[in-house]
Design goal:
By secondary structure, the chain is α/β, with parallel strands linked by helices. The protein folds into two domains: 3-108, Cobalt-precorrin-4 Transmethylase, domain 1, CATH 3.40.1010.10; 115-219, 2-Layer Sandwich (Methyltransferase, Cobalt-precorrin-4 Transmethylase, Domain 2). The protein is 35% helix and 20% strand. The protein has helices at residues 19-27, 36-45, 60-72, 93-101, 115-122, 141-148, 164-175, 199-207, and strands at 3-6, 30-33, 52-54, 77-79, 105-108, 129-133, 154-159, 180-185, 193-198, 215-219. The strands form two sheets. A five-stranded parallel beta sheet has the order 3-2-4-1-5, with helices on both faces. It has a five-stranded mixed beta sheet with strand order 6-7-10-8-9. The radius of gyration is 19 Å and the shape is elongated. The structure holds S-adenosylmethionine (SAM). S-adenosylmethionine binds at residues 11-12, 81, 83-85, 88-90, 113-115, 158-160, 184-189, 214-216.
């Protein structure tokens, strides 16, 4: 049966890749990736010679039918993203859905994704959580925050360094100052750091220094007794 492989790649430390991921990437005929220059570095590191084809949020709608035809005609294809697991705040959903509609099997390998280590590092309950990814920038942001203000499960957000202060300020307004929060930045990289506290204390400590790198924010859920 025709198949596509969804292959997670490292979120920083190049050692974080599974043996199966390397073998699949060597074995397929074509690797779809977001940024060919970035993925080339990973391929060179692991001596993978498979050709790359660009597949990102700006061309995935035009590309998806071409890819489906390639898979149907016997080309072995894998999808990767710039970092972590495709489909997690990255392209993946569209091609997976279209493959399923075309009776193409999905083989999603387990592997790196930023939110799992951030959630576990946080010390905030990990038994029930919701993944919110990036908050909307403008339209729908306030409504989303209002809905989340009564969310009882731990919440997981992705954020960029230049928006983190605004996001924490919005959390302060909508969730209150005493909720626990944990900020994990540069996971698996040299300057990896996790800052834990209340929304108020973390916001105070961050305004004193400039924050750099990629960030995952974990926020404690709403508690009725508070
Ligand atoms: N597909 C990826 C995954 O599985 O986690 C997520 C891709 S999304 C475009 C990029 C965001 O993921 C960053 O803005 C940041 O919020 C988070 N992220 C990725 N790598 C990270 C790292 N090493 N440390 C902290 N956050 C990271």
């Amino acid at each position: 049966m025709a198949k596509i492989y969804i292959v997670p790649t490292p979120i920083g430390n190049l050692d974080d890749i599974t043996l199966r991921a390397i073998n699949v990437l060597k074995d397929v005929d074509l690797i779809l990736c977001e940024d060919t220059r970035r993925s080339k570095k990973l391929l060179v590191h692991y001596e993978i010679e498979t050709p790359l084809r660009s597949h990102h949020k700006f061309n995935e709608h035009q590309e998806v039918d071409i890819i489906i035809e390639k898979i149907k005609s016997g080309t072995k294809v894998a999808l990767i993203s710039d970092a972590g697991t495709p489909g997690i705040s990255d392209p993946g959903y569209l091609i997976v859905r279209t493959c399923i509609q075309n009776n193409i099997e999905i083989d999603c390998l387990p592997g790196p994704t930023a939110f799992v280590p951030a959630l576990i590092n946080s010390g905030i309950p990990s038994d029930k959580f919701i993944f919110e990814g990036f908050l909307p920038l403008k339209k729908g942001r306030k409504t989303r925050l209002e809905i989340l203000s009564r969310e009882e499960r731990t919440m997981v957000f992705y954020e960029s360094p230049h928006k983190i202060l605004k996001t924490l300020n919005d959390f302060l307004i909508h969730f209150g100052s005493n909720r626990k929060v944990s900020i994990s930045r540069e996971l698996t990289k040299i300057y990896e750091e996790t800052i834990r506290g209340t929304i108020h204390s973390v916001l105070e400590s961050l305004t004193e220094k400039s924050i750099k790198g990629e960030i995952v924010v974990i926020v404690e859920g709403y508690k009725l007794s508070k």
